[in-house]
Amino acid sequence: MQAIITVVGQDKVGIVAGVSSKLAAMHINILDISQTIMEGSFTMMLLGGLPEDADFKAVQQALTDFGTQQDLTIRIQRQEIFDAMSSL
């Protein structure tokens, strides 16, 4: 299963490393990634490959909790839902 993951927050050292480490710990492969800093705000969007047996709700909650701990907003959407919404 593939998912779109977005990360937004105030720019600080270690965001990419922290998010990448969290994803690796959950066996989520980063397939594509884009990031930028806009007037002090960090934004990142990535395509992640989740294991076939991944519990999507558990992954979603783990990323939300990690984001809260890091003072970031992290959201995840299944790629097919993201694609359907962006084709409207």
Topology:
Blueprint lengths: L1 E9 L4 H11 L3 E10 L2 E9 L6 H14 L3 E6 H8 L2
Antiparallel strand pairs: 1-3, 1-4, 2-3
Task: Write up what this structure looks like.
It comes from Schleiferilactobacillus harbinensis DSM 16991. The chain contains 3 helices and 4 strands; from the N terminus they run βαββαβα. It has a 4-stranded antiparallel sheet with strand order 2-3-1-4. The longest helix is centred in the C-terminal third of the chain and has 14 residues.
Shape: globular
Query: How widely separated are the two ends?
Result: 22 Å
Helix-strand sequence:
EHEEHEH
Largest sheet: 4 strands, antiparallel
CATH class: Alpha Beta
Low-confidence stretches: none
Number of strands: 4
Total helix count? Answer: 3
Q: Write out the strand line-up for the largest beta sheet, numbering strands in chain order.
A: 2-3-1-4
* Fraction in beta strands: 35-45%
Name the CATH architecture: 2-Layer Sandwich
How helical, in percent, are the residues? 25-40%
Protein name: UPF0237 protein FC91_GL001426
Domain ACT: 4-77
Organism: Schleiferilactobacillus harbinensis DSM 16991
Family: Belongs to the UPF0237 family.
Characteristics of this structure?
88 residues; alpha+beta; Alpha-Beta Plaits; 4-stranded antiparallel beta sheet; 4 strands; 39% strand
Q: What is the structure about, briefly put?
A:
The chain has 88 residues and is α+β, with helices and mostly antiparallel strands.
